[in-house]
Amino acid sequence: MLRRFRLEEPESVREVSELLGRFGESAKVYAGGTELLLAMKEGLVQYERLINIKRVSGLDEVKLENGAIKIGALCTHHQLELSPVLRQNLPALVKLEENVANVRVRQVGTLGGNLCFAEPHADPGTFLMAVGATLIAEKSASKREIAAERFFVDAYETCLEADEVLTGIKVPVPAPRSGVAYLKFGYLERPSVGVAVALTLNGGGKSVGDIKIAVGCAGPAPKRVEEAEALLKGKSTDEATQNLPKAGSVAGAAAQAISDLHGSQEYKEHIVGVLLKRAFQSALSQC
Amino acid sequence: MLAGLEDWGKFMSKAMSRHQDAQTIPVSFTLNGRLQEIDVEPHELLLDVVRERLGLTGVKRSCDVEVCGACTLLVDGRPVSACTTLAFEVRGRSVLTIEGLATNGKLHPLQDAFIEYGGFQCGFCTPGMILAAKALLDENPNPTEEELKHFMHGNICRCTGYKKIIESIMAAAKKMRGAS
Fold it and tell me: Can you give the residue range of the structural domain that contains B168?
């Protein structure tokens, strides 16, 4: 059961930030509540106040802005499944969203909430790192953009300051001749390994130009793996394909996998390699 | 004895005053087609309000962590886990429970199909199954079995093994398409 708390319902980002500043750790931003309320029901965290951010307008849209896809932090997973902008420009994110948890969680859970809660077994963080996304964090009188790969500090911990509010996510529109794939492995709804690959071909489609690889779910926080990227970047597609096993083991080691009920560390590291190979091939096939 | 009673009195008065300080939120919403007005505290869950305060016990508490689907209700036609939905969230919205599905004493085609095809055994998951299936068929009247399984995978049954449930929903879908 939930303990009593008070509810604040501000209508602007400025007010949300001010409330966070005033009440500090005794208050928490509440959006969909699909993760926060579970932790509160279990008594793992307690807050005197929840700040319902859903009355702040303008944070639930997906639009194209200056060559980037801008996703409001309050967009629900279900909205993202249906978004025409994403379907046209970033179908891999649509596919990811279609497979988040279950239909009821997708109905109310938000992308911003998912990122801020920083539950390790989540898909979007890993994906957003690979596509070079930035997260927009606002305070009463300031705003900054944080690279997705710098957002997560640890399990359940982000680099947001106490009075900062995540308001949106910016993803560059993928270049021509590029592909994006996110693959996950897990038992029922809980992903235990997630791998994202975003790549662009150059040289008339014969070599790998830019490539970003991220791994998540296996360890405390999603991570970009530049050492694995380096084994594939600039290589001909054949050479890159030959290097995949090596890149897979580098990415597996970088995942900081832990042993738990979903599998041993060694097993998860192996799965990272398998998924990396498949995600690379899938991304390549889209180019 | 007297001192004990005095302590009891103090305890009760403190408990009462805390209750009086509690924040209440007026919630006006449509429940099974009828206007419902109720004051709730911020922490009250939709599941508790519907079951304990409004007396509609078709919706079930089971896993309590949004995984099993036994507490499925439709809010504006879409499925939510009532176990993890704060009651105030239904302000101005329309909530459908299994009790509101039959019209004028006539069962919904999904209810008929679950009976005809044996889509349940103990019945505990059935209200959630039927409501989730209704949400699916309202948005996609002609789902493939694959689409049906994807939509319904978050509703768990521990008796039937799902075959009969899938048969029931597919049969209801066919009947509903024929009727419209």
Answer: 109-179
